TrEMBL record:
SMART domains: WD40. Gene3D superfamilies: E3 ubiquitin-protein ligase SopA (2.160.20.80), YVTN repeat-like/Quinoprotein amine dehydrogenase (2.130.10.10). WD repeats lie at residues 646-687, 688-729, 730-771, 783-802, 861-895, 896-937, 938-979. This is WD_REPEATS_REGION domain-containing protein. PROSITE patterns: WD_REPEATS_1, WD_REPEATS_2, WD_REPEATS_REGION. The keyword Repeat applies. It holds the Pfam family WD40. It comes from Linnemannia gamsii. Keywords: Repeat, WD repeat.
Length: 1155
């Protein structure tokens, strides 16, 4: 027995007659005998219990069968960078050795963990207990008891273990069991008298949903006890790296399956496998999922010819499943034919083969998948005993005789005792997706005459059965079908259209549009009047100028959807989710905010040393009073501390925060220090001085163990509050980080800056989780005490409220949407994007089609440029070197060395034979793209190079510097041509005809002659603050973006004046580029790369005011494609007569429609 769990004392009964000593002695003797006998019995029972545990250990070790195991890597969460990995098992072992209670981790990993724990098991240690949750009836109650009883432990043994032993509970398949409960809380683990456990739970990430931590985090015993931040830890199993894939392939070839999945499969070497995996486009990415790698290794030799051009082969996830299933059924049909069957079974098999065995087997599994979702609530494990359940729906699939038996035994269904399930949850989802879309490829196995033209199942009926929005994997399978079959896309669009006149089609319509949005189908300008799509998921969809008049949009999720100019007149919008709350108007630039600890008040500091107080129930202002920008609520008495000149800081205080107990205060100031103070005495306790710039904001974690500080050097720093040691430096912001705060549960940190919105971080690992974009010039972000929303302030005088969860989790972003930098080629037809991990992708602007550039290089990319013909990409890195890549092969062509500081700008010459780079080392270097040779160094710059452009002829380069100087150089000789008179500009370019050099600044646009360098009056009418701009190829239009996200268009076709023709608030752009439509030279498109980051493609349209009248046109921009960061846009929407919209959503709509 563990010393940590003392046995209850035995009660002793004494007589009341003190003179009866003999009786007392006799009683004592009997009691001693009784105690000795009970102790001996207890020891025997414990020895018997330990024998049973050793038997369980032997059984589980014997059942363990993992032929190949590659140690998995993990990252802190879904959005963490792919190069920030750690060994998963090391983290799990660290968790099990700690005092923490729960971790969220998949099947093979869990079994490996169990095997490891049983191997090391010694008497008295924690007992490892593996639980397959889908097989447990009601896991919310008596979970451990049920599993132990399944392993034949007696009630007395279970009771003994509950009182005296500790467990490591490994819960597998949380998602498959369709659970929504907190297992830890529901079973009262670690409460007095209850099971003492550490819990490891596995769940597929796409099933976590919003605010998932509440379903896993152990809850405190009483309301006054705080949950420790590290009581709950999570890890996301990382995809396989190329090295891990090659390691797995090597083990697979060395240790082939005892029974091959496929007969007549060619034997491949490691080199042959890797050749196919690497050279078939996108296949290496696909098989980075370990289960898909297994499918690929089994299927590839049978489906890929060695002589075929691998670059022409396309294999998607669903195609991999198609190939695997067909090969699996082919093999199992042969095995049945070679098996000793009865005469009746032989006849039944002959009939199946004669008609079409493949068809009937797939139909059997489709029907089973349908039954599981409809009749079994999606629970993948079905228990069946024939005599008890032969009159239920189950008999059609689990009857032990006839065709049912043959089809089941050849299928991807496995049996364990009386339990049946597909070999992997994804096969359940795959076969259900085939009930909606079936490729009808059965003729490949037909021995008889199979009619491929037989009527297909009714699509509307199949789409109506269940709400597949709740099944992301089914949607993913169907999305891949849409990408491969335009007919299927038209059928889904038809289902949406049918809902206009038939209410019975509403569920089918909602499912259909959710699939299409997942694919990335653009609905801009579509006539969707009267459609019925209740419960649809439109997150991140493009519905610019779409007409939803009279539509049923009940319970639709529109988070991050682009709904600019959409018409919602008379639409039903009960329960619609926008993912945001209406903002508060502070009327002056807002600089800071803080919630009271009871969540009833929000205090906002504004310019002019004033503080506004809001009621969070109504969001109405209560009072305003004088005060500075640094403020914090005390957790003790709800008083507000306003930072000023705390004694010890040598410069003004920028931020203050109380410790959770209120006995300490931390402050940050312009003197580049954060200081802690005793609130009772006012004395300074310590200095956190390792800052390189002013400290804007400080925050304590809810448990008081960490302090976060943000500073003007673009980063956030996490400190150990006890020792003052730095724990993490969080990088990723561009510009001054103005605010930092912890979430109420301590798991997340929110920080914001003016340039790149709000960042959410994991407080334990320091990894980036997500970003909230759509607002510009953010100054502060704070979690509400209830953790259900975030308030952010901005210099435009607004306080925006973001719903927690809705904006943070977005599993519907497509591959490659998340990028950190990008560039547009000269004609705008293609763009290149890159993630922080170095993953490049080239996109066709109008179609959205993309191609990976696999560069096999992981030094962080800071800037990039795409050559005019899109065959080369130049990238700069944190090592100050440039690298030139071939976009077709990913081969590194040249490493260009010479710069000694950050390379801020890269640009190709119009012919692509040169690339120029501008650096903070005050030089511009010109390189030959064919040889990599340095051709010129342009050195006479007065400051860091902040802008760089070639002339249309390629003979000149204009370079601007941080000191507002601008120089024009000869690109061939490196000689300076002239300096521009009165230079001022943040962005520069030559006009497309080469006659002018144009700059943009806070004073508007200016122009110079490209021949003389003299100032010209052209464009001087444009005086708006322009961050970036571009002139159209025909020299007739200029588009510009302001720092507040205003996109502006001018007609500049006249030499005498400029006319503004369009203005709309979108997002702040750092690149604007025009392009022509290849099919229609008169059609212009505008491309904007925004700080999201995202790419928006806009179509320029002109509508005549009166038909047949040519004098005055009305121009507009319509969003036709969006790649990257998604933001909610409700600008200029119509909502007359809208029904059911909540007051908060109506207020949000009214606010945002006027932007």
């Amino acid at each position: 027995m563990d010393n940590d769990f003392p046995t209850p004392p035995h009660a002793t009964k004494y007589g009341n007659d003190l003179n009866n000593n003999q009786n007392i002695d006799l009683i004592d003797s009997f009691q001693d005998l009784e105690i000795n006998l009970k102790t001996e019995v207890d020891m025997q029972e414990k020895l018997h219990l330990e024998d049973e545990l050793q038997n369980l250990r032997t059984q589980r070790l014997k059942e363990f069968d993992q032929r190949i195991y590659i140690a998995p890597m993990a990252k802190a969460n879904l959005q963490a960078r792919d190069d920030a990995l750690f060994p998963l098992m090391d983290r799990v072992q660290e968790f099990l050795a700690s005092e923490r209670e729960e971790a969220a981790s998949r099947h093979s990993i869990n079994r490996h963990l169990e095997h490891h724990l049983w191997t090391d098991y010694k008497q008295g240690r924690h007992i490892p207990l593996y639980v397959n949750l889908p097989t447990i009836n009601d896991p919310a109650h008596d979970l451990i008891e049920k599993e132990l009883q399944y392993h034949n432990f007696s009630e007395e043994q279970v009771r003994e273990m509950k009182l005296c032993r500790q467990f490591i509970l490994i819960c597998d398949g949380y998602d498959e069991s369709q659970l929504k409960i907190n297992i830890h809380t529901a079973n009262q683990f670690n409460r007095p008298g209850q099971w003492r456990v550490k819990v490891v739970i596995s769940c597929r990430t796409q099933y976590l949903g919003q605010d998932y931590r509440s379903r896993f985090q152990p809850q405190p015993v009483d309301l006054y006890q705080r949950t420790k931040v590290d009581d709950f830890q999570e890890a996301v199993v990382a995809v396989f790296s190329r090295a891990q894939i090659e390691q797995y392939v090597d083990e697979y070839v060395k240790n082939p399956p005892a029974v091959d999945t496929f007969l007549d499969k060619p034997t491949w070497s490691v080199e042959e496998y890797m050749d196919k995996l690497v050279n078939i486009p996108s296949l290496l990415d696909l098989v980075s999922n370990p289960f898909l790698l297994i499918l690929a290794l089994e299927a590839l030799p049978s489906v890929v010819s060695s002589t075929k051009d691998l670059s022409t082969i396309t294999i998607s996830r669903v195609q991999l499943y198609d190939s695997f299933v067909k090969q699996w059924l082919k093999v199992n049909r042969r095995r049945l034919e070679d098996s000793p069957l009865s005469d009746d079974e032989r006849l039944e098999l002959h009939l199946l083969v004669e008609d079409n065995f493949l068809y009937h087997s797939i139909k059997f599994q489709k029907d089973l998948a349908t039954a599981i979702f409809i009749d079994h609530a999606g629970n993948p494990v079905v228990k069946y005993t024939h005599f008890r359940e032969k009159n239920t729906w189950k008999v059609a699939f689990f009857c032990p005789e006839g065709q049912v038996k043959l089809l089941r035994e050849s299928s991807t269904v496995m049996r364990s005792g009386a339990s049946f399930r597909f070999i992997h949850r994804s096969f359940l989802e795959y076969f259900y997706s085939r009930t909606i879309y079936d490729p009808l490829d059965y003729d490949l196995e037909a021995d008889g005459d199979f009619d491929e033209s037989e009527p297909s199942p009714d699509l509307i009926t199949c789409l109506t059965r269940i709400n597949i929005v709740k099944e992301p994997s089914i949607i993913q399978f169907l999305a891949e079908r849409v990408e491969a079959d335009a007919t299927f896309m038209r059928q889904l669009l038809g289902a949406i259209n049918d809902s206009k006149t038939d209410a019975n089609v509403a569920q089918a319509s909602a499912n259909a549009i959710s699939v299409l949005v997942k694919v990335g189908v653009q609905f801009s300008g579509k006539e969707l009047r009267g459609i019925k799509i209740p419960g649809a998921d439109l997150r991140g969809g493009n519905f610019d100028s779409a007409d939803f008049e009279g539509a049923d949009l009940s319970d639709v999720n529109m988070s991050r959807a682009w709904l600019r100019l959409a018409n919602f007149s008379n639409a039903r919008m009960t329960g619609v989710q926008f993912g945001e709350l209406p903002c508060l108007n502070a009327f002056l630039p807002a600089t800071n905010c803080a919630f009271s600890f009871d969540g009833k008040l929000l205090v906002v500091a504004v310019m002019g040393d004033a503080v506004n107080v809001y009621d969070t129930d109504t969001w109405d202002p209560i009072i305003a009073y004088p005060g500075g920008p640094a403020l914090a609520f005390s957790p003790v008495n709800n008083e507000v501390a306003i930072g000023g000149a705390l004694k010890g800081h040598t410069k003004p205080v920028k931020g203050v925060a109380f410790s959770p107990t209120g006995d300490q205060l931390v402050s940050g100031g312009e003197d580049a220090t954060a200081r802690t103070w005793d609130m009772q005495t006012g004395e300074a306790l310590g200095i956190l001085g390792d800052h390189t710039d002013l400290v804007n904001s400080v925050a304590y974690s809810p448990d008081g163990s960490q302090i976060a500080s943000s500073n003007g050097n673009n980063d956030v720093r996490l400190w150990d509050a006890r020792t003052g040691n730095i724990k993490h430096i969080l990088t990723g912001h561009y510009g001054n980080v103005s605010s930092v705060t912890f979430s109420p549960d301590g798991h997340q940190i929110a920080s914001c800056s003016k340039m790149k919105g709000i960042h959410l971080w994991n407080s334990l690992s320091g990894e980036l989780i997500s970003m909230l974009t759509g607002n510009v010039h953010n100054t502060c972000a704070k979690f509400s005490p209830t953790n259900d929303y975030i308030a952010s302030t901005a210099l435009d005088g607004t306080v925006r409220l973001w719903r927690a969860g809705a904006e943070f989790e977005d599993f519907f972003l497509r591959l490659g949407d998340n990028f950190s930098c990008g560039d547009v080629c000269a004609d705008g037809s293609r763009i290149v994007t890159c993630t922080e991990e170095g993953r490049m992708r080239i996109w066709e602007t109008l179609t959205g089609k993309s191609q990976d550039i696999r560069i096999g290089f992981n030094i962080r990319i800071t800037e990039m440029a795409l050559s005019p013909c899109s065959t080369r990409v130049a990238s700069s890195h944190i090592d100050h070197k440039l690298r030139l890549w071939d976009t077709q092969t990913g081969v590194l062509l040249h490493v260009l060395e010479g710069h000694t500081n950050t390379v801020a700008f890269i640009t190709f010459s119009p012919s692509g034979d040169q690339v120029a780079s501008g650096s903070f080392d005050r030089t511009v270097r010109v390189w030959n793209t064919l040889t990599g040779r340095l051709e010129a160094i342009l050195e006479a710059h007065s400051g860091e190079v902040h802008g760089l452009k070639y002339s249309p002829s390629g003979h000149q380069i204009v370079a601007s510097t941080s000191g507002n100087a601008a120089h024009v150089w000869c690109s061939r000789t490196g000689a300076k041509v002239f300096d521009l008179a009165e230079p001022a500009g943040r962005s520069w370019m030559f006009s497309p005809d080469g006659r002018y050099i144009i700059s943009a600044s806070e004073k508007g646009l200016r122009s110079w002659s490209s021949l003389t360098g003299l100032r010209m009056e052209r464009l001087s009418d444009i005086q708006d603050f322009c961050m970036v701009f571009s002139m159209s190829p025909d020299n007739n239009f200029i588009a510009a973006s302001s720092p507040y996200g205003m996109l502006m268009l001018w007609d500049v076709s006249s030499d005498c004046c400029c006319t503004e023709i369009y203005r709309v608030r979108t997002e702040m752009a750092y690149e604007v580029r025009w392009m022509r439509d290849v099919a229609d030279a008169d059609q212009l498109y505008l491309l904007t790369l925004t700080s999201g980051p995202s790419l928006r493609v806009w179509r320029l349209s002109k509508q005549e005011e009166e038909e047949g009248k040519e004098s005055q046109g009305v121009y507009s921009l319509q969003l036709v494609r969006s790649i990257g960061g998604r933001v909610l846009s409700l600008a200029q929407t119509k909502a007359d007569g809208v029904v059911g919209l909540s007051p908060a959503n109506l207020r949000l709509l009214n606010q945002r429609r006027n932007e």
